[in-house]
Amino acid sequence: MLSESQVSRIVDSVDALFDAQLQFTQRLVEFPSLRGQEHTAQDFLHDAMAERDFAMDRWKIDVEDIHHHEGFGPVTISYENAFNVVGTYRPERQTGRSLILNGHIDVVPTGAGEMWSRSPWEPAIVDGWMYGRGSADMKAGLVANLFAFDAVRAAGFTPQAPIYFQSVVEEECTGNGALAALLRGYRADAVIIPEPEENMLVRANVGVLWFKVRVAGRPSHTREMTSGFNAIDAAYAAIEALRTLEAQWNAEKAEHPHFEDLEHPINFNVGQIQGGDWPSTVPPWCEFDMRIAIYPGTSADEARRAVEETLERAARNDARLGGEAPKVTYTGFYAEGYVLEEGSDAEQTLRACHEIAFREELKTFTTPGYLDARVFTIYGDMPTLVYGPKSRDIHGFDECVHIESLRLVTKTIALFVADWCGIEETAEGET
To answer: Which of 161, 329, 350, 387 has the fewest CB atoms lying closer than 10 Å?
Structure first.
């Protein structure tokens, strides 16, 4: 473990750099890195990493390179601007353990702008919180990775193991960015992902599937409505059927360790719906997009079969569906959940570092959300620590990250880098 003097120098260095860290985070939030528009923010991070003399790797994700993998999520958009960025620090000699510091640059849509207190791309700091789309989820964490490393160096130490700083795309929709980084060969002895996790460590999280359900109807003039078949009404019947599956899976939560105490671990969300062509015409079509959760240990293929069988059974038994099963198309996440097994050296190191920074014991929890950690844990067999600052309203209006929480999380990551990777005093004249 680090000496008291080393700890003091590193945490003081985080404090000294923190204003610059906040300014850098604000600049990154100003980039509207929505899906398909991440490249300008990635260029900004690429340049910042290059200034630190990292070996740089910036590549456009090629679906042909990853589509064969079981963790791949189906793609429905162009990847023309889907670039990953990895900066690699390598010491002159390696004596410590290697580390991946990962984060995602993509953010979700803002929704109605008038519902925000200010522009979603205006990262104001108000009453101890930084606002803006992506401020918490997860640009503050991405920047914390960089500035934690900076703090170690500024404190006069040189890390003694390779560190891979990853900024990936597609975390909010497929997980293909992290998968592409893994398949490109990036591996390490541990991974940290500073998602906004309320100063806690994620013990387990669900898998996620995205799919589109399309129901066919038969149009007619509304004066002869009974001669038509209303696809929108049928879509509601399909949603009801899927709600029965959701209820069934939630009723089984006691069979899944780490999920038994959650009130509603399995959530089926109808995120989009559209249908019909004309108010006075019985609608001939309707489609809705759904995101569903699955327990760790359930494969995406198993969940897919359950969804399709549920809709087929509903088509046989519910006259509102007209006897024909809806068409299901998979449009994004096709991901399994994971559990972080207890007792790894990486977790123990994080616990010790957290206790120094926060002066309290590290807590763990289970989240019913998706995390890229499943890529590194399931397919890379790497202990992956998802741990990050307090937040409010991620994916909602007025998303924000707590400033003091971010400071302490940065200290934890900096201490982890020093302890896990090992450090030596920086030679005179070295930067």
So the answer is: 329
Same domain, 261 and 294: yes
Please give the pLDDT value at position 90.
97
Q: Looking at the structure, do residues 170 and 73 belong to the same domain, yes or no? A: yes
CA–CA dist 136, 194 (Å, integer): 10
| DSSP bridge partners of 210 | 291
Q: Are 271 and 134 in a shared domain?
A: no
Are the beta carbons of 328 and 315 closer than 8 angstroms?
A: no
Distance in angstroms (rounded) separating the CA atoms of residues 351 and 363: 9
Is 202 in contact with 364 (CB distance < 8 Å)? yes
pLDDT in tens, 330-342: 999 999 999 999 9
Cis upstream peptide for 56 (omega within 30°): no
CA pair distance 73, 372, nearest whole angstrom: 12
What 3-state class would DSSP assign to 243?
helix
- DSSP E strands in 217-371: the ranges are 268-275, 285-294, 327-335, 338-339, 364-367
What pTM was estimated for this model as a whole? 0.96
pLDDT at residue 226 in the model: 81
Which of 320, 335, 350 finishes a domain?
335
Instruction: Give the number of domains in the chain.
Output: 2
Contact at 8 Å (CB) between 67 and 180? no
Give residue 121's domain range: 4-205+337-425
357: in domain: yes
Give 43's contacts (C-beta < 8 A, 6+ positions apart): none
**Is the pLDDT assigned to residue 224 strictly greater than 90?**
no
Helices (H), 130-185: 140-154, 176-183
Instruction: Give the domain-ending residue among 278, 309, 335.
Output: 335
In a domain, 430, yes or no: no
- Residue 431 within any structural domain of the chain: no
